What does this fold into?
Amino acid sequence: MLLSEIQTGHVVQIVSIAGQSSFRRRLMELGLVPGTRVELVRVAPLGDPVELLVRGASLSIRKAEAGVIEVVQAAAAPAENAVPKSVALAPDLGV
Amino acid sequence: MATITTDGVATPQPSGPQARAATSTTPLVLLVGNPNTGKTTLFNRLTGQNARIGNYPGVTVERRSGSSRLDGNRLVEVVDLPGTYSLSARSAEEQIALWAVLGQGQYRAPDLCVFVADASQLSRNLYLALQLAELGLPLVIALNMIDEAGANPPNPEAIERLLGVPCVTVSARRGSGMSALLGTLERALADKPTPRLKVAYPPALLADADRLAAALPAPLRDTPERARAMALWALTSIEEDDELTEIDPELRRATLELRRTSARDLDQEVIAARYAYIDEHLPELYKRLDRHPRKRRLSERADRVLLHPVWGFTLFMLVMLVVFQSLFSWSDPAISLIEDAFAWLRSGITAQLPAGIFRDFLTQGILSGLGNVLVFLPQILLLFFFIGLLEDSGYMARVAYLMDRIMKALGLHGRAFVPMLSGFACAVPAILATRTMERQRDRLLTMLVIPLMTCSARLPVYTLIIAALFPPSRVFGFVPVQGLLMVGMYGFATVMTLLSAGVLGRTVVKGRRIPLILELPPYRLPSLRGTLKMMWERATVFLKEAGTMILACTVALWVLLSFPRAPAPVTTTTAPVAAANADHPAPVARVESPIAQSYGGKLGHAIEPALRPLGFDWKIGVGLIGAFAAREVFVATLGLVYGIDASDDDASPLRDRLRAETRPDGKPAYTPLMGLSLLIFFAVSCQCMSTLAAVKRETKSYKWPAFMFAYMTGLAYLLSFTVFQVGRLLGF
It folds into this structure.
């Protein structure tokens, strides 16, 4: 599914990012690499952009661009205060 | 003019108290880091009063540098690099970071880089730190905002072990940890600690990088590590349509060739490998792993209200109302004070000196010019006071977030909202405020359309024209025509702004639109100290750079409108330029006013054929020339043409005179149609030298102010022409 399709408050994991190469590069550099957990925090009052929580930082992108990011339902969140050793792909450390 | 270091960096300023000491042999320390990590606060702590603003060569990005004394009294030059998330670049602006840390192009190679990290956002911050480390540069980590990192802060010793370079915890805002940092910098300048780390890139990628490294110019591959890091930089930066400068053609060719022929996702391989390294080692840097630090949780709770569809917008409107109201009316007492002070000075000098060219030059040229410059200060200071608070608190990013939907429709960045709003008060502070946007394209486009907003200087002109030429009748029995026109002018200007932004953004202003990526930083208590410093910086830059131009233009306009001097006996009249700020003595009414005989008056006559199709006569033409000093001067200039005292406070004698003006055939010279044409001309044309001076300062070129003048005045001419001619055909 696409990041633009998920509900507010849901946590997903990045699968891949399509789109303009400088944009996808910048998103990946901000930590949205495959496997990273992303929470859709809220949608702006006028319907765009959307706010994401990635690696403990809040990032906003527009819906059109969220529509080129392929995501999957996130694996169960690693327990608080625990070092996640066994989570597949990159663990979201939220710090 | 402030000295702009065109030869790169370490050029000492030839004058001023800051000039002491910093020379090309002074060790150079660069502050590198993500945006919102308190880099500039740390810079201010390090340099104190010894900071100056220059410009990076070739781009309109300000370069902040200053000197600092380390322990043992050693002097270093500190440069605050623009905040960036990564060294990879696609524009000349983004390229500054890499070129500066490497000492490429016109930059002097640094002796030490200080990586400033936000202790509560280490995961993302470490990405840039890895890039610096891979280049093998002498590096020190300043773990800033350690006071906000909560109960589980990162462990600096663990960071030292990971990256192999010193790490100091500081709080630049509170000033804690500064002496430890100074001591570390002192030692690091001697030891040159170079990081050692190994990111596990896929073997195929490394093979590509090593092949590409052969195409690097020699200085970029002095060590195998740096060669590999630079090859990875090229792979993630150079593209067919990038806007990088000074890239070696062979490197460009080889990179594009590799990107084209490779079936693999090179960007992702590079970036994912770095984040895999960070994710692998991040647990070592903490005692335990909190999912979200405390600060983020607090910000999130605040955002539930501040970004709420109803409460958030209500609060947003209130905040913007305060900003606007302060520019529009709260700045008035200070502006009046400055005007009164200059009027007092002018009358004082007039009383002391004998009449003559010198006295007039002093009072009407120089003093008026200084007044024309200083009169902007209250609004500039107020606007940057609010911008400082909004930026510092993290709310400015929320403004962009809330308004992005609307601004996007114009092709503008969400951050353009505050400058555009300020444009309703005055274009000059609004243009200075465009620097809150990172990209040159966004800044330029916003600057080009800001002067179309209905600024307060247009109001006296609108009032005069509407009152003089339109009947005080009502439409539908209750809507006053004059009020309707005033509202209509605001609506018309807004539509013109939107249209121009749309057209210019697709044609003249180059640069691809880049999708919005907006970080919403955690809320922080704004620092008054930092805000005051920014207000001071912006004000001095304006006075020095735009101020000189405004002063020169004022003098030029004075010459234009005062020479050749009318034969005696002429009573003292105040030149129109001076009248912008003055309660001037009432000149005695006379048939042929001196201004009519001036060069400006002759110019008015000369351009009359061009103005006729718009419905204007030469007198209006002279008014337009005078209005170049500032739009409201139109009223005073026209008053001088008619030999009537007309200040923008009370223009009633002039209003009556305009109504009574007749053509040779006895018909009224000025009709409502001509009034409409004139209103439209004033709404669109670029009648403001100060706006042009501000654009010149912000774009560092004459090209953009020239373009702005041409497009606005051309558009104004076209629209007024159309309105007047169509109106006449329709029989008005």
Q: What stands out?
A: The beta strands of chain A are 11-17, 37-43, 50-54, 57-61, 69-73. Confidence is low (pLDDT under 50) at residues 79-95 of chain A. Chain A is about 15% helix and 30% strand. Residues 4 and 67 of chain A are 5 Å apart (CA to CA).
